[in-house]
Amino acid sequence: MKEINEGLFKDKYQRYKEAVISILKSRGINALALGHYLDAYCRDFFADKMSADDCATSIAENRLAKEKAMVAEAMRIMREHGYRVKPYKK
After folding, report:
1. What's the mean pLDDT in 48-64?
2. CA 59 to CA 28: how far, in whole Å?
């Protein structure tokens, strides 16, 4: 007897979430480390009928903004304590 591809029966939300995870993975972001944060974004964007790419872009931009804010705060603290901090240039 032939095996049935169970992937055909997944609901639309699960496929949407997997598409977002795939896009994030291609951008170098570990989506599994995001946990509930990923679920919240996916639920909201899925309910608003936004594309998976829009959802992944929003997550990536928000994550980048948080990382920049953390670096800026760390640099501020270091300057307050007398360290000389030079900006990183590529």
Report:
1. 93
2. 12
